[in-house]
Amino acid sequence: MIPGATIHEGTMPVANKILLIEDDAATGDFIAKGLDEEGFVVDRANNGRDGLFHATDGSHDCVILDRMLPGLDGMAVLSAMRGAGIATPVIVLSALGSPEDRIKGLTDGADDYLTKPFAFAELLARIRLLIRRGGSGPAPATVLRCDDLEMDLLARRVRRGSRTIDLQPREFRLLEYLLRHADQVVTRTMLLEGVWDYHFDPGTNVVDVHLSRLRKKVDEGAPYPLLHTVRGVGYRLGAAP
Q1: If we measure between CA atoms, which residue out of 143, 106, 144, 112 comes closest to residue 126?
Q2: Edge-to-edge strand order for the sheet containing 17-21?
């Protein structure tokens, strides 16, 4: 035993603290229950003023912040936090999901932005990522790349090499999902949930149709394909193995 060392038998790791600022009781209960089951300690506020009060103590590892709150809206809470020098990672959770809304949330100081309806598993993954990274880490990437394919999230521009690719909104969202999972095999179920917000199989070929159109735009005229079908499993974005 090292001289002066103390052994603490049965010491448990300190649980991460989450501040949940959400005025919808059903949504708040759903998130709080899921986080509790994952071992987090959850503090809750159902309006912006109380949420800001709790956020200013700096004791939380992550804040989940709804945008549309009574008393003080979510963007005002976020602005006040950043103005006070509070660097706690913030995930904005909102039904406002247009590109403009997401860009405003990120440029106003949010570390991540997740639209409702959402999958709890995705929210959990984002929370864990931000906690690992810490509040002083780099800002979220606004440019996604795979090989010679590049997506600028703020400018809403996609290029492959020197060629600009024009995409419809759903195609853009689909490609964004694939880029965030580059070199990974993604299933139809993952795409239905992550791109279409379907938590069930609608029994249509909507994924295949959109991927076929996207493949033509991304790979047509290119020296090699980036969008691949993994037979019987799903799809993969990346150079050929």
Answers
A1: 112
A2: 41-45, 17-21, 62-66, 90-94, 112-115
pLDDT in tens, 174-218: 999 899 889 999 898 888 888 887 766 777 788 999 999 999 999
Locus of tokens 């945008």: 67
**Rg of the chain on CA atoms, in Å:** 21
> Which DSSP helix (H) or strand (E) runs through 196?
helix 188-196
First to last CA, the chain: 50
Q: The tokens of 232 are what? A: 């019987």
Bridge partners of residue 145, in order along the sequence: 150
Q: Judging by beta carbons within 10 Å of its beta carbon (0-12, 13-18, 19+), is residue 158 exposed, middle or buried?
A: buried
Convert the pLDDT of each residue in 183-192 to its tens digit: 999 898 888 8
The DSSP bridge partners found for residue 45 are 21
Tokens of 142: 């606004």
